[in-house]
């Protein structure tokens, strides 16, 4: 945790803003979410804000704006290039999940856009799928904007709270104990992430079952 904080604080604030914003934007606009989830960038932005390196309100505004605009670009990409894009070889290993995402979108419409924001794979592909499905942009934007606001605030504030908690522990019981606490937190986050993946798979299985029933 110390190493992470020092690295973040060693970067000029303008670059922290820029990198976090671009990663969140690119996740949905060009599928970079398959490599670096936007939520990771949002949390890092929150950690930087907890140290006073950047402004919390500014980071939240940028992350929310990047999420909404990135989704809108992804929507347009899907609208104009969707068929060819979905046939790309890089998506072959995700074909089953794409089919389930399309089925979910067909059944839930705008709510699929909102809920997809909170699952890494769906967040990366749902905007393009919505564009491909010819969903009216105004409907897409309404659900996309609400999802972007809730998601952006949640993960930036999560990073902010994590950063502040670490510093509070470090000042009270020393760096060694703080590092131990940080390790425990990281392990807890890994466990949470694994459980989330299992939950996502269960949800996807439910979508598949519902699709088969239809």
From TrEMBL:
Subcellular location: Cell membrane
UniProt KW keywords: Cell membrane, Membrane, Transmembrane, Transmembrane helix
Record domain VTT: where: 36-159
Main location: membrane
Membrane topology: Multi-pass membrane protein
Any one cellular-component term (Gene Ontology): plasma membrane
Transmembrane segments: 12-36, 56-75, 140-161, 173-192
Assigned protein family: Belongs to the DedA family.
Listed name of the protein: DedA family protein
Organism: Nocardia terpenica
């Amino acid at each position: 945790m110390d190493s992470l904080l020092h690295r973040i604080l060693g970067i000029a604030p303008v670059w922290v803003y820029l990198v976090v914003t671009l990663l969140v934007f690119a996740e949905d606009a060009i599928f970079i979410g398959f490599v670096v989830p936007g939520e990771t960038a949002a949390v890092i932005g929150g950690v930087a804000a907890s140290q006073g390196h950047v402004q919390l309100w500014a980071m939240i505004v940028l992350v929310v704006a990047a999420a909404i605009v990135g989704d809108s670009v992804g929507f347009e990409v899907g609208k104009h290039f969707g068929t060819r894009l979905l046939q790309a070889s890089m998506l072959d290993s995700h074909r089953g999940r794409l089919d389930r995402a399309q089925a979910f979108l067909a059944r839930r419409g705008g709510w699929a856009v909102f809920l997809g924001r909170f699952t890494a794979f769906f967040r990366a592909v749902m905007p393009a799928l919505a564009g491909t499905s010819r969903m009216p942009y105004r409907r897409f934007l309404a659900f996309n904007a609400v999802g972007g606001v809730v998601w952006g605030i949640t993960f930036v504030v999560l990073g902010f709270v994590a950063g502040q908690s670490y510093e509070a522990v470090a000042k009270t019981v020393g760096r060694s104990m703080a590092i131990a606490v940080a390790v425990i937190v990281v392990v807890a986050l890994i466990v949470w992430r694994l459980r989330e993946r299992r939950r996502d798979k269960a949800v996807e299985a439910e979508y598949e079952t519902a699709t088969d029933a239809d």
